[in-house]
Design brief:
It is a single chain. Strand 2 and strand 3 form a beta hairpin. The chain is built from nine helices and five strands. The protein has a five-stranded mixed beta sheet, with helices on both faces. The two termini are 28 Å apart. The protein has two domains: 106 residues, no CATH class; 65 residues, no CATH class. It is α/β, with parallel strands linked by helices and 194 residues long. Helices cover 48% and strands 12% of the residues.
Length: 194
């Protein structure tokens, strides 16, 4: 197998969010393509010549990169997208990914900022009231509730945070790319999508 471009993100929620930005609605097909390419240890998706995998949290990305390089026996182009508020990610040994960072601190905060633009007045008032809250998860669950209650028609739904992020990034790609230059750079330079 020729060397591939492989990108790791921190977790499954991040992975599904990126797949939404890529416009991939059918995740099972992208997952099967990744499996056919030999990416079977972790949740991975393949799209347009790039394999995207969840890294099991920022603390496990380096280990998974080393495993990938060891298993493949050849050099892959390896990248990682991590939260901007995470510690410096330094991988030892062979298999150091090229690191990209969100400028929004973390994905939850980015989704919250996007939701403030997506949810129109007067419904966005409760989002504005949460602006100073340091609990990003609490803020994003409020956004998920408001969007589900007021703006999504039957048939467009989500059952968990990962599927919410996927749906939102499918429908509002431009908002996310406008809000975060680090994400925009990752999408353009690694995934070839601007």
């Amino acid at each position: 197998m020729p060397p591939l471009r492989v990108a790791f993100v921190e977790g499954k929620t991040d992975l599904r969010f990126i797949m939404g930005l890529l416009g991939v609605e059918e995740l099972m097909i992208a997952k099967k393509v990744a499996r056919d390419l030999g990416f079977t240890k972790y949740e991975c998706y393949a799209h347009n010549g790039v394999v995207l995998c969840e890294g099991g949290g920022k603390d496990n990305i380096c280990r998974r990169v080393a495993e990938l390089i060891g298993d493949a026996g050849e050099a892959h182009e390896v990248y990682a997208l991590v939260d901007g508020d995470s510690d410096v990610l330094e991988c030892e040994g062979g298999g150091k990914p090229i690191i990209y960072r969100l400028e929004s601190g973390n994905l939850d905060e980015l989704v919250f900022q996007a939701a403030k633009r997506i949810v129109p007045p007067p419904h966005n008032g409760s989002l504005e009231a949460e602006e100073g809250n340091v609990d990003s998860k609490k803020k994003v669950y409020l956004a998920m509730y408001l969007l589900r209650k007021h703006f999504y028609a039957r048939g467009k739904y989500w059952s968990d945070l990962a599927s919410f992020y996927h749906r939102l990034s499918l429908d509002h790609r431009e908002v996310f790319l406008e809000l975060d230059a680090g994400l925009r750079r990752f999408m353009l330079e690694v995934l070839g999508v601007g």
